[in-house]
Amino acid sequence: MEHECDIILLSYESPELLKKCVSSVLEHTRVPSRLIIVDNASEHPEVRRYLHGVHGGGSITIEKVFSEENAGFAGGMNKGMRLSDAPFVCLLNNDCAVTGGWLEEMIAIARSRDDIGLVNPQSNTFGSCPDGKASIGDHAVLLSHKKGSYVETGHGIGFALLIKKEIIDHIGYLDEEYRGVCYEDTDFSVRARKAGFISVVAEGSYVFHVEQASRKTLKGVEEIYRRNRELFESRWGKLLRVFLLDSPAAGEGHMPGVYETLRGLAREMVIIELWITGERLAAEISAGFDRRRIVRHADIGINVFSGGFITAAIVWRVLTKKKKYDAVIAEEGLLSRILRFLRPLHGAEVLSLEGRMRLRARDGRLFDLGDPGAFAEYLRGKQGSGNR
After folding, report:
1. H helices present in 172-309, as ranges
2. With a cut of 70, which residues of the chain have pLDDT below it?
3. Which of 90, 106, 98, 132 minimizes the C-alpha distance to 208?
4. Among 159, 162, 224, 332, which is disulfide-ready with 119 (CB 3.0 to 4.6 Å)?
5. String of b and e for 306-331 (b: at least 16 CB within 10 Å)?
């Protein structure tokens, strides 16, 4: 049987979670697939007993790999990925439970656009949780009307991540310099984006993730996280946060174009808070989402100011935000002058919005948001300049 997808299931300890995960894959996967189970040197005897006894069925064949040492997330997944010969590879943690149609929908989303390269399912990891006594299967049914819809994300998350095989052929495997677990999927996503592929969440696919279960038995997890974060930031820079106040004088119909421009900026590892002074302008974006004319990006938040005292409200927000902004963008005026004066307190670069696309820095440099990489590079240079 030719398989359309190789599902790489990383196993480490937790036999009960592993059994539930494999059982859910066998029950709910209709796509012809090979389940490659890579055991990362589990010491629990029940894990080995179970794996030696489990067999495929229906559309699933099973292959098992027993590692002699714990190779971490990247090393373990790579063992399975190197065996793959299918057009799609799906990374899957042993602390997940899949639901009906999960893989079909992710593959359909991946095929809907050439530049979609990495696909996560909707999940409790992203805040989508069953209500009350509803099962995860019930919750998945409630999401079925969203089949065909997706949200772009800053990066894929490896708990359940579908990858086009052509990406692996182009950029290689997960980087095993990221030891243990964390940041290897983010690094892979950045490399994929630079090769022209974006990451999305398929809103009509659902996988439940028992978050952090795989990290509970991991020794020195805080040190691993710190080291991997430093390695990632040394390569790609830190995550940026930008506040943008859209012009209240902007004409009707311009917001979809503004959003599309900001989506390009978000791809440079930038979290954007877009504030709009009018319900009508926000409705333009919402209508674009509903009609699927605009692709939603998870790292662009849309907020509407209502009432007066806008200047005071923005100043207060910038000063009190816990995760400080790297940049605040607004039309030149009283607000920008106040924020420049208060810069020693909030640390953000204050830029003037000139038209819909251009930004002017305090040193006179002019940036076009149509070239988001140059602007992001400028802000990251400010991060390391000691001005923060």
Report:
1. 184-194, 221-236, 255-266, 279-290
2. 1, 212-219, 247-253, 307, 384-388
3. 98
4. 162
5. eeeeebeebbebbeeeeeebbbbbbb
CB 66 within 8 A of CB 185: no
Per the structure block, which two tokens stand in for 178?
A: 């990221």
Three-state DSSP at 78 gives helix
What are 127's two structure tokens? 């805040």
CA–CA gap between residue 304 and residue 134 (Å, rounded):
33
Helix (H), strand (E) at residue 91: strand 88-93
Task: Give the position of tokens 């790292």.
Answer: 299
DSSP 297: B
Report the alpha-carbon distance of residue 322 to residue 105 in Å, rounded.
Answer: 38
Assign 3-class secondary structure to 324-372: CCCEEEECCCHHHHHHHHCHHHHCCEEEEEECCCEEECCCCCEEECCCH
DSSP-assigned letter for residue 31: S
3-state secondary structure of 35: strand
Output the CA torsion sign for 79, 83, 87, 92: negative
Q: What's the pLDDT at 246? A: 78
Residue in the structure block whose two tokens are 């995860």:
136
Please give the C-alpha separations between residue 283 and each of 47, 262, 289, 290, 382, in angstroms, as whole numbers: 53, 17, 10, 10, 35
Give the pLDDT score at 252.
57
DSSP, collapsed to helix, strand or coil, labels residue 83 as coil
**Radius of gyration over alpha carbons of the chain, in Å?**
23
240-245/5-11 β-pairing: unpaired
Which among 110, 178, 224, 209 has a CA at the least distance from the CA of 186? Answer: 178
At residue 385, the pLDDT reads 52
Report the C-alpha dihedral over residues 227, 230, 232, 237, rounded to 10 degrees.
170
pLDDT at 277: 78
d(CA 167, CA 111): 13
How would DSSP label each residue in 115-181? TEEEEEEE-GGGT----TT--HHHHHHHTGGGTT-EEEESS--TTEEEEEHHHHHHH-S--TTS-SS
